[in-house]
Amino acid sequence: MNVLRTRIRAGVLVVGGGLVGLTAALLLRHHGVDVTLVERHATTSPQPKARRFHTRTMEVFRELGAAELVHDAARDLAGHYHMAAGRTLAEAEQLPLWQPSGPAGEDVEPSPELPCLVAQDVLEPVLRRAALDAGADVRFRTAMTGFTSGADGVVAELHDLASDRHERLQVPLLVAADGARSPVRTALGIGRSGRGAIGGPGVNVYFRADLADVVRGREFNLCQIEHPDAPGALASVDGRARWVFMAAGGETDRDWPALLRAALGVAAPDLDVLSVLAWQPEMLVADRYSAGPVHLAGDAAHVMPPFAASGANTGIADVHNLGWKIAAVLAGTAAPALLDSYDAERRPAGWFAADQSSRRSTDLRSAAPDDALAHPYVLAAGGFQYPSGALVGGPDQGGEIEPVHVFEPAGRVGTRVPHRWLDATRTRSTLDLAGPGWALVVGGDPAPWERCAADSPVPLPVHRVEAGFLPAGCALLLRPDHVVAWRGPDPAQLPDVVRVLLGAPAGAAPPLSAIGTADRA
User: Which InterPro entries does the entry mention (predicted)?
Assistant: First the structure.
């Protein structure tokens, strides 16, 4: 290969221009990091794929200032949150919405953001435009044909497929969001563990048919079809004309128009099959998320059955975790060791999401209890607790453990800060206090905390919040990704806690054992 030139950039190379890669580019630009994104395909995905983005993902888009863009893109499926089931689509009935309540029966509001139904082929162009507007160097029809990595970073070989030009790009770090077959993961020799195949193979049939009159008044996200000759599930892509039928079995050469009309229970004269894709649900998680300057995210790090778009949502959480850490290291405010916490935090989270997705029943009518299932809001609102990582006083250090079978966020170390509205108009949430910077949330008099926060190695705004999860005299230190990094009652410990979290050199801060951890109130 004839390399025309070598360019050295101080930022990050993102490989993969899907949902996770584009969100990674947006997050890195949000933190002021120079970003080059390459994607070998000419356009974003033409397939609907993931469609449900839960509250935690929408909180990430909220931080980026993109939540309204996403909700606007999702307007076709607004209100399509019900599930449905029936012998055919024409006979199907909506199933009741699940409405959780708190211990005393009160309504639970887990987030400042509602979940969002929007097809991946609609959302990706929105994210691509936003990344370009944010200043990312986004290059579609550009393949990374090889790379080397070492102590000095990554040298990537790039091929511009449109112009047939080659380039060598040297960057400090690489984020691989290059899909389930990830050439980057393969080149690094990183294996995967998990259950492997889950159930039998399936086929996704993407088709067009104007069914607006058929579903009017019974709008749904997913409909279970129980016809003996055409069992499967029907997913609504735009609520009117675009649909995906998911059938069991790996055969792709069936008479799909006839089978679809049987499942629909109507003639559908305009039915047009657009694509037929065989697939196999799997549960596999990379044995390492990081290898030196290279970090895996999204499907490159974990694959799982598509329950509620768990893979896409988990991947977006990956890069939300990684983005601020990369920015801190590149800016010199954190030691490179901070990036080790990405694997320590996100690999257990990926395993948890993949396991939970694998356990979910495919029978929408079933209400059978399963003691292994986490509370739905633990999945949707980022309720998984990091056991260790960029934390002081987390579970692996004796900190309080967050339950997963109930949704009772209490500001424990390693968890996302609980949502509480901060104003009467319900426009500002505790989730808005951190990101892209750090924040300190205190109960009671903020003055002693403000004095000590002035000695923090990073800017640390102090916010007084009256909330049940925050006793008077206690403070929560929030990372830029809204995660509680430390909880304690002693303001004097605060500067050293921050230094430890940022990977201060030996001697610059006391050992973890010398620092107070959690207030047990």
Answer: FAD-bd, FAD/NAD-bd_sf, RIFMO-like
